[in-house]
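Exam review. A common question shows you a sequence with its structure tokens and asks you to describe the fold in words. Practice with the pair below. Do the first one on your own.
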Amino acid sequence: MTPASLIEVDFTLNGQPARVRCEPTRRLLSVLREDLGLTGAKPACGIGRCGACLVWMDGKPVNACLLMACRLQGRSIETIESVGQTEQSAPVREALARAGGVQCGYCGPGLVMMLTHLYRQQPRPDAREASAQLCGQLCRCTGYGGLQRAVDLLFAD
């Protein structure tokens, strides 16, 4: 890549100004992990089907493996490194722990991000709607029983 083909992108990352210089088609997942040292979003399917790389862009869930750097200008990105430490994710983390909703932890960051997004919505979805929203979050360890129990705890009618 020649220096002329690189772009400079300014955005907000976890509440702080961020700037990266990279190829326009570089994926946000690579920018986060390789350029900025934030490894909470995990590489897995690479096609936006598993949710392991889920982050929030302007407050909405997006798969970082699909988002190109050229789309970041002026946007706000939040990752598990920030959201996972907040009061708003505490009920989600507690429900996952109580219900045995995570095992190896690989899918955990994406699950916390999606469940926290759903939990902070007003009106909040019921357990059935929340479960349907999790269809893009794959977990190979739990058999989904623990995840469903955590959803039931969080979104009980």
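Now try the second one, then compare your answer with the model answer below.
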Amino acid sequence: MSRPLTDAEKLRGLPWETARITLTRVYNALLLGAPFPLFLAALGLAKSRIGALTAVLYLVAPLSLFVAPAVARFGFKRTFLIFYGTRKLFALFLLLTPWVKGQYGLDAAYWFVAANMLAYAICRAIAETGIGPWYQELVPNHVRGKFEAITNTVGMVCLLGANTWAGFMLGGQAGLDEYLVVMGVGLVVAIPSVLCALPVPGGGPVAQTPGGRVHAQHLAEALRDGNFRRYLAGTGLAALATTAWGTFVPLYLKEEGGLDAGTVVLLGNATLVGTLVSNYLWGWAADRFGSKPVLLLGLAATALLPLGWMLMPRGSEAWALGLAAYAGVSAGWGLGANRILFTGVMPPEKRVDYWAVFYAWSGLTSGASPLVAGWGMDLLQGWHLPTYPCFFGGSLALVGLSLVSFAGLRDPGAPSLRAWLGARLSRKPH
């Protein structure tokens, strides 16, 4: 059964957690990052179908609401390891897609990918129902911002190498074989990412977990928390605005921006560098001044990205490079959003129920983003209207609404800026 971890145990587990997160990010970048929508487009799929396949990853997230008690009884760590490992099998089947297309046609290939993505997403949803409470238990709050900053920094350095290799592999007139090589290497990286979770402490079974009716009551209690509802509104609007960027910005840069697939993937390195140079500062500021200022400032900066993409001159690699680096700098809002969830919004004693609600909601809104965007762009194209300006304009409006929602969010765990300034000013020189 689960027992409280000592700080010494937590700190010993953090390097393994950093390694797990880093390898997972490399795996995700190579398999389901920018190469994935480009691979689907190279197969010949329409934007609505590409958006639907991306959305499947998120739309099964409400499964978390139903499996959370069973996950808690079985153990967060065991659940995560089993389902996190199993999903790799369905990712492996994606490499057979060109063969399926060649044998049975494009429609069959689409449904083949959809079936495997659905099975992959179900395993992902169950695994991540376990990782949230386990992660909150593992990382001490007083170093959470710094830990996330350090983990992000290590991850960015590794992703730089992975993106550079993938970009050169997909440069010029890349065919389906090159995409399959990149995705295959991502799957190889996935194996040690599972193994690195084994030495991480915590995540044991919860001794007493509620039955179905009581669990439903606990979920309802979480939704009656006004501060939590405001957090859900803010993250939902931000997810609707930004999740589709990962799917359609690479296509935009290739179709409208005049860049080849390799260059589009390599632009991810500029984003990584931007994140790398700003990440520790965001983490330090979150620990020192609280999560909310970092969240609001980073999200406000992110609102400028759609404007930059709309104004980009065709074929301007320098413009695209600058925007990609800026995207990395402004991404600090995600660190603030994560930190405020674990330290101020989600009570540790109610983490199973709050996490289940949050995960389900974030999945629905994240899944709706590429699904609605892909469907809408196909519709606009049929009407001979500008698709990408409408897409970016809608994103900008949603980011603005998210800022309004987050502005009223309370952060009970935040340090007092006034107290910190007072302490600094009252210090006497030696």
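Model answer, second protein: The chain has one domain: 7-426. The domain at 7-426 is CATH 1.20.1250.20 (Growth Hormone; Chain: A;). Full marks require stating both points clearly.
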